[in-house]
């Protein structure tokens, strides 16, 4: 199953967090949001289709994420978990750790926002930049 979320950039995108990546439906961002790679997202955890949520709660689920911006694509993998809550109305967070809260979409991810190519981060610092966050669950 595959699900795409559109988002846009912001001048305050830093993308230097070592443990998480976040996209948010919020329309503003402060420099403290150093894991955020996109704002104005079209979906949050709460908005995901129930079928996708069910697949994400399978502990054996292999979850692949793709962040596409311009000619760049950043791909990472994570795991589903039976305790995922998936109810946050604004945010989606993917984590290297196994911490779970309503914003958590996947755990034990192999990359974090500090590993996004810096050219991609530069593009995302332009509010006119559009990106696509794709979730694929096998």
Report on this model:
This protein is mainly β and 138 residues long. It has a single domain (2-137), classed as Jelly Rolls (Sandwich), CATH 2.60.120. Helices cover 10% and strands 34% of the residues. It has 2 helices and 8 strands; from the N terminus they run E-E-E-H-E-E-E-E-H-E. The strands form 2 sheets. It has a 4-stranded antiparallel beta sheet. Strands 3-2-6-7 form a 4-stranded mixed beta sheet, with no helix packed on it. Strand 4 and strand 5 form a beta hairpin. The longest helix has 7 residues, at 50-56. The chain is globular, with a radius of gyration of 13 Å.
Keywords:
10% helix, four-stranded mixed β-sheet, Jelly Rolls, 8 strands, mainly beta, 138 residues, four-stranded antiparallel β-sheet
Going by CATH, the architecture would be Sandwich
- Highest CATH level, the class: Mainly Beta
CATH superfamily: mth639 domain like
Whole-number count of domains: 1
Mean pLDDT: 97
Helix vs. strand class: mainly beta
Map the helices and strands:
Layout (H helix, E strand, L loop, with lengths): L1 E7 L11 E5 L11 E3 L11 H7 L5 E8 L2 E8 L11 E5 L8 E3 L11 H7 L5 E8 L1
Parallel strand pairs: 2-3, 6-7
Antiparallel strand pairs: 1-8, 2-6, 4-5, 4-8
TL;DR?
By secondary structure, this protein is mainly beta. Helix content is 10%, strand content 34%. The protein has one domain: Jelly Rolls (Sandwich).
């Amino acid at each position: 199953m595959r699900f795409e979320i559109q988002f846009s950039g912001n001048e305050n995108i830093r993308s230097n967090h070592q443990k998480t990546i976040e996209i948010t439906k919020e329309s503003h961002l402060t420099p403290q949001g150093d894991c955020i790679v996109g704002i104005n997202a079209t979906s949050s955890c709460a908005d995901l289709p129930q079928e996708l949520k069910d697949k994400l709660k399978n502990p054996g689920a292999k979850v692949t994420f793709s962040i596409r911006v311009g000619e760049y694509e950043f791909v990472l993998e994570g795991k589903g978990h039976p305790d995922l809550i998936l109810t946050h109305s604004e945010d989606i967070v993917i984590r290297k750790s196994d911490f779970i809260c309503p914003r958590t979409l996947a755990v034990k991810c192999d990359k974090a926002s500090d590993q996004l190519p810096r050219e991609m981060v530069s593009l995302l610092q332009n509010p006119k930049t559009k990106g696509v966050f794709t979730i694929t669950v096998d």
